Amino acid sequence: MILYALTLAVFLIVDVVWLKLVVLDVFEARIGGMMRDQPLLGVAAAFYAAYVAGIVYLVSGPAMAADVSMGSVALQAAIIGLLAYGTYEFTNMSVMKGWDWTMVSMDTAWGGVLTAGSAVAGLALTRLLVN
């Protein structure tokens, strides 16, 4: 539970900063007419809770139990992030007007970086607290 909570905290804090400072302007310029004035926080919370649970279940939890290296954790989590965010971005690009390669490349890369960084940070913090 500590691993999950710390990973979720890192993921949320870093992603909110990224969304507000970098991505919002890019997406508003391209698809602003489709965006809500305020996000649906319950929907966002459900995504964050489930996604981080997946990271912990598939990568961080097993790494904690087997004392896997941080490099391996980062690689595995990055692959999950690239696949998850890439699925969203490439699907949107294929069916929605206004979606472009800037959005696809930025967000897909961000998925890999955010997922890897959160998994590593959550695991490192948990190892410090538990060991």
Radius of gyration: 16 Å
Level of helix content? over 70%
- Number of DSSP-assigned strands: 0
> What does the main sheet amount to?
none
Mean pLDDT: 94
Estimated structural class: mainly alpha
The residue ranges in which pLDDT falls below 50 over 5 or more consecutive positions are none
Strand content: under 5%
Coarse shape: elongated
- Number of spatially distinct domains: 1
Task: Summarize the topology.
Layout (H helix, E strand, L loop, with lengths): L1 H30 L9 H26 L3 H26 L5 H30 L1
Characterise the protein shown here.
The chain is mainly alpha-helical and 131 residues long. The protein has one domain (2-130). The protein is 85% helix and 0% strand. The protein has four helices and no strands. It has helices at 2-31, 41-66, 70-95, 101-130. The radius of gyration is 16 Å and the shape is elongated. The mean pLDDT is 94. This is DUF2177 family protein. InterPro entries: DUF2177_membr (IPR018687). The chain crosses the membrane at residues 6-27, 39-59, 71-88, 109-130.
